[in-house]
Predict the 3D structure of the following.
Amino acid sequence: MSKKLLLAGGGHAHMMTLANLSRFREKGFEVTVVQPSPYHYYSGMGPGMLGNTYSPEEIRFATRKVVEKSGSVFIQEKVARIDPQARRIFLESGESLPYDVLSLNIGSSVPRSIISTASAENIFTVKPIEHLQKARQLILELGTEKPINVAVIGGGPSAVEIAGNVWGLAHRGGLQPVKIQVFARSSIMSGFPDRVRYKAIHSLNARGINILEHCAVKAIHSTRVELESLQNYGADVIFVATGVNPSPVIRESGLRTGPEGGLLVNRYLQSVDHPEIFGGGDCIYFQEQPLDKVGVYAVRENPVLLHNLMASLEGKELQPFDPGGDYLLIFNLGDNTGIFRKKCLLFGGRPAFLIKDYIDRKFMKKFQALER
């Protein structure tokens, strides 16, 4: 009986494996890919889609099409549980799937604990990226009719990019006045050097975006933001960008995790307890050293996961993952400008945005070519 490779999620860390599914098929392995959507959206371009710089089609990969084109099986479902002893995953539908080798790239989610309502259609967590597409449409609909208030909860890069790109959406769409407020528990971009913080703050302030620092949010209601100080701010549209946690599926399945709940993996991106389980991206905790939640590590994990998944199926030697050194960060501020940072090199303005745009489009072009 042929061995079964199961990929849970078609995210950044699985891109090279998806591009080489035919190699697995040629060696006689069965491959199944499970993902909640037929597409995978590139998070690095998500804020740009919100700001109408990019269309949804420009920032997504047709995962189902690529998988089925290779002769493999695509299942549009969410993973509910993993049973490592039985070597099976259970889907939310109740169906279960066997595997010989499993690789997890099921990402992360924004905690919803401060959201007091479960059904409000105007509250959007910044992940999954598809939420930003719905938010864009709602802002365009509301802003065409009347002035609106938009609240962004969070103080990190995601909150800054969301706020800036909401402004860009309103500016490009010719909407009625859109008031944007950012609620940061501590300081804006607190984990970055002062020069990065100042550039971000100056950009938002120059466009009339109101930043409220050291401002803890107690609860998010359908039409207002309630602070721990008991002040309330009305909002027509609310974004929650308060950081991300690994998928709870891993911890709830009894797999050993790191302190944040990500699958604890060794230097081979392999579960420390179950050698047939691998993982990459935001859903893992790298035992050798903590990794920042940035897409560059998922991209760097690509060739190692491709090699080790094949090697594990064939019983060959695994390859260690080297996280590498410092990485490039470029933030999209929503007005065709950005902030560029690599080691000691830091600058802002339109050149920073143009570099990011070039890198992102090149990345997308490489993998979207698989669809044709």
About this structure: The chain has two domains: 4-36+77-109+245-327, 123-243. Residues 123-243 form a domain with the FAD/NAD(P)-binding domain fold (CATH 3.50.50.60). The first helix runs from residue 15 to 19. The first strand starts at residue 4 and ends at 8.
